[in-house]
Amino acid sequence: MHIVVCMKQVPRDNSVKLNADLSINADGIEKIINLFDEYAVEEGIAWNEKHGGKLTVLSMGNADWTEQIRRALAMGATDSLLLSDPAFTNTDTLGAARAVAAAIRKLGDVDLVITGRNSTDDESGAFAPALARHLGWPQITYVGKIQDVDPAAKSITAERNLETVVETVQSPLPAVVSVIKDINSPRYPSLLKIKRVAKIEPPVWSAADLGLSAADLAPAAALSARVPAPARPSGEMITGADAAAKVTALVNKLLENQVI
Amino acid sequence: MAGVLVCVEQVGGKIAAITRELLGKGRALADALGGPLAAAVVGSEAGDLANQAVALGADTVYVVTDAALATYTTDGYVAAAKAIAAQAQPALVLAGASFQMRDFGAALAADLNAGLAADATDITVAGGQISAVRPSHGGNVINTLTFAAGRPAVVLARKQSFPEATEQAGRSGSIQNVAMPATSVRTKVVSVAPKSGAVNLADASVIVSGGRGLGNKDNYFKLIPPLAAALGAAYGASRAVVDDGWVPYEHQVGQTGKTVSPKLYVACGISGAIQHLAGMRTSRSIVAINKDPDAPIFRVATYGLVGDVNEVLPLLTEQLKARLGR
Ligand SMILES: Cc1cc2nc3c(=O)[nH]c(=O)nc-3n(C[C@H](O)[C@H](O)[C@H](O)COP(=O)(O)OP(=O)(O)OC[C@H]3O[C@@H](n4cnc5c(N)ncnc54)[C@H](O)[C@@H]3O)c2cc1C
Ligand SMILES: Nc1ncnc2c1ncn2[C@@H]1O[C@H](COP(=O)(O)O)[C@@H](O)[C@H]1O
């Protein structure tokens, strides 16, 4: 079977700066595989090892976003694909999902797409549902366990880990699945494997390769303002001669200010 | 396109708190847009929800009931919502930002070719233009998205962002049944199991969280749940203690756990790493208890108390019990 894992490269930490044009400046911050996507890659590899076929790691991003694709290849992905075009720069999550859907249709033989729960930079969590709708495929989101993938019966059974319940859902394939952090323990690639993939350049597809126009990628919601999170109004330190005095002072404050 | 459509969520036959918030905010936004406030009730049965939505401010309630809607499926609920949107023609669709509603809202936005703001903390209308505010990058960046005219906007709002609408007895509105369109629901919900001891941190108005400063799992359970009980609170944790297996992942607050915005968040023995702050910095009041006066958590604290959790927490629990009577 052919599994595609959607993987985004993100800054390791979010102490980002803003450029004058409101874009994010993460220069000098190390780029990593989006935390949840590491789990998606691991899950894809595990089912690929079980059923054989292809595991393509697919990323949409800058032309130089190859390092983390190589890391996924070193972990065990068999193929890679990078969607890169200046035309993609200003699109939103829904536009990204439209472009990735076009790429998956072009690949043609995909049975299962695995994504992360959300990206740790944009944090929309909208990509997997939007991708599924653009493909016309069913979706199973927030998956904490894939019980079974059956390529012969073309079906998948997975547990959705929601706030207060676990929902077990069965779906026909092809389908889109998004995974959460608890699903597995991502492997570390061996040095040998890292060396072996060090020179691989992923194929790059542009908007034109995907038959996408500027209108297809125009965001329906445009960024009109962006500011660093305002600092919280400065609070106060509770003082007192000893712990008991501090606790009394704290409880007094909480009651006075109707916090409790 | 005119007005606002609120997707109704319910808890035990009653309109959920998040929907009350959205009906309150939606009323003001609909007035600013010069259109009606509509509500969408979708399920296997509607019970009294439509009347409740009218009392909470809806002008029109669209109801789709069908046996196929007994449990949530993306196919079923999006089909029902699209049938309602086709009649209501809203400029703005509002829903909560729970996991289920994100599954739903993003799919609906894709199908309607709408703009989407997920996990919004504010929504405004100015000169007919709709904007939503949403944090990203672990809460470090606050974005304002302005929706393109002529396309609907879908906004999924973070809980406890708006005051809840209050019921107005005797308010009247129109209730319209909408037929469930023919839909193939491809996914099958095999079972729904409540999580044992699950807490819905996002619903809690007070949260007490413990971090590595508690020392070990036994100490966490000796100190945190009693304090939580005294405050009527749910209890949460930092990733450090979740990773060490003290408490399950459901309790994790932060960028890779839950994002919460309670009235009061009490952080005990938590350093305040940016990934933790990402999940709780929008709480209305924050109490931090940490033995290190330089701990970053104090920078976001409304009330900071420098002290040893082993000494402070039992005293605090006792005083709260005595003075709040819980
Ligand atoms: C990609 C990524 C995602 C992450 N996501 C999350 C997330 O979702 N949530 C999250 O919480 N973290 C997250 N982290 C981890 C985060 O960076 C911190 O490591 C973690 O929050 C630290 O937990 P802590 O504050 O409990 O422990 P520590 O950092 O070890 O802090 C313990 C604190 O307790 C205090 N202390 C010690 N003893 C006492 C005592 N007796 N009395 C009082 N105070 C005491 C210390 O002064 C210290 O400040 C993430 C990290 C990464 C890289
Ligand atoms: N640019 C991208 N390239 C590949 N996958 C992506 C991209 N953006 C988002 N995804 C996938 O969609 C998931 C959810 O992202 P988001 O909707 O941005 O929170 C991520 O965990 C990835 O699996």
Structure, described:
- The complex is a heterodimer of chains A (260) and B (326).
- Chain A has 260 residues and is of the alpha/beta class.
- Chain A has one domain: Rossmann fold (3-Layer(aba) Sandwich), CATH 3.40.50.620.
- Helix content of chain A is 29%, strand content 29%.
- Chain A contains seven helices and 15 strands.
- Chain A has helices at residues 35-51, 67-75, 93-107, 127-135, 191-197, 214-217, 243-256; strands spanning 2-6, 9-11, 17-18, 24-25, 31-33, 54-60, 79-83, 112-116, 139-150, 155-161, 165-172, 175-179, 204-205, 221-228, 236-237.
- In chain A, the strands form three sheets. In chain A, strands 11-10-9-12-8-1-6-7-13 form a nine-stranded mixed β-sheet, sandwiched between helices. A two-stranded antiparallel ribbon of chain A has the order 2-5. In chain A, strands 3-4 form a two-stranded antiparallel sheet.
- In chain A, strand 6, helix 2 (67-75) and strand 7 form a beta-alpha-beta unit.
- In chain A, helix 2 (67-75) packs across helix 5 (191-197) and helix 3 packs across helix 4 (127-135).
- Chain A is globular.
- Chain A starts with a strand and ends with a helix.
- With 326 residues, chain B is α/β, with parallel strands linked by helices.
- Chain B folds into two domains: 4-177, HUPs (Rossmann fold), CATH 3.40.50.620; 201-324, 3-Layer(aba) Sandwich (Rossmann fold), CATH 3.40.50.1220.
- Chain B is built from eight helices and 18 strands.
- Chain B has helices spanning 17-33, 49-55, 74-88, 99-112, 217-231, 239-243, 274-280, 309-324, and strands spanning 4-7, 10-11, 14-15, 37-43, 60-65, 92-96, 115-120, 122-126, 129-136, 141-147, 153-157, 174-177, 188-194, 206-210, 234-237, 264-268, 285-290, 303-306.
- A seven-stranded parallel β-sheet of chain B has the order 7-11-6-1-4-5-12, sandwiched between helices.
- The longest helix of chain B has 17 residues, at 17-33.
- Chain B is elongated and about 60 Å long.
- The N and C termini of chain B lie far apart (51 Å).
- The mean pLDDT of chain B is 95.
- At the A-B interface, helix 3, helix 4, strand 9, strand 11 and strand 14 of A face helix 3, helix 4, strand 7, strand 9 and strand 10 of B.
- The site of adenosine monophosphate (AMP) has 23 residues of chain A, from helix 1, strand 6, helix 3, strand 8 and helix 4.
- Chain B: One of its GO terms (molecular function) is flavin adenine dinucleotide binding.
- Chain B: Belongs to the ETF alpha-subunit/FixB family.
- Chain B: Pfam families: ETF, ETF_alpha.
